[in-house]
Amino acid sequence: MSMITVLDKGYVRLVNHMGSDLTVVNAARVSYAKESKELNERDMKLITFLAREGHTSPFRHVILQFEVYAPLMVARQWWKYVVGSAHQEGTGDTLEAWNESSRRYITEDPAFYIPSAQEWRGKPENSKQGSGDVVAWALGDKYTQELMEYVEEGVRKYEAALQDGVCAEQARLFLPAYGMYVRWYWTASLQAVCHFLNQRLEHDAQKEIQEYAKAILQLSQPLFPNAVGELLK
């Protein structure tokens, strides 16, 4: 399995990867001019030690590349990890790259995340951010319908502007932004991927990005079972 669907129209696709648990081990053992040919129990203990003690550079020799299709509100949360990867205390650059499709150049039919009636959440009781319990179905249905109408109106104005000869990079101003799906490639070291997972799998992370983090975990863990398991402890 290389692709997992997320939300109503989104997905995560594993495009490519480099390395294995053995790559992590040998990146660490090169300090002593040693190399393991096959992963053994001693190697697995070394992975545990490296993760526990914060010796993260060996995990940066393993690379994963994903294609992600997600609402803009998810993409912009995710993007912060790329911006901050060079500034994480004690780690240095965790090796990340991001290339995103642009509506300056493409005019494919826009797609939008529309929560169903049972997916709208109320504000939390004891926090200024995040969300609480699911709201009543009638209220959720009301806002599902209103969001659909709002999106449809924006798309009509966007298409009318294109028909009138307005450039794509300005016509896109009519598209409702935060729910619009965008597509990007995310290439990152295993350390960077697990840093993302450690934060976005938490119960207090935004639910929508939690769903994408679960997909990333499901695609990554079979490739590097020992390293992922230790970095997520």
Automatic annotation (TrEMBL):
Give the EC number: 2.1.1.148
* Gene Ontology BP term (one): dTMP biosynthetic process
List the residue ranges forming a coiled coil, or say none. none
Q: Which Pfam families does the protein's record reference?
A: Thy1
Protein name, per record: FAD-dependent thymidylate synthase
What molecular function terms (GO) are annotated for this protein?
A: flavin adenine dinucleotide binding; NADPH binding; thymidylate synthase (FAD) activity; thymidylate synthase activity
So which domain of life are we looking at? Bacteria
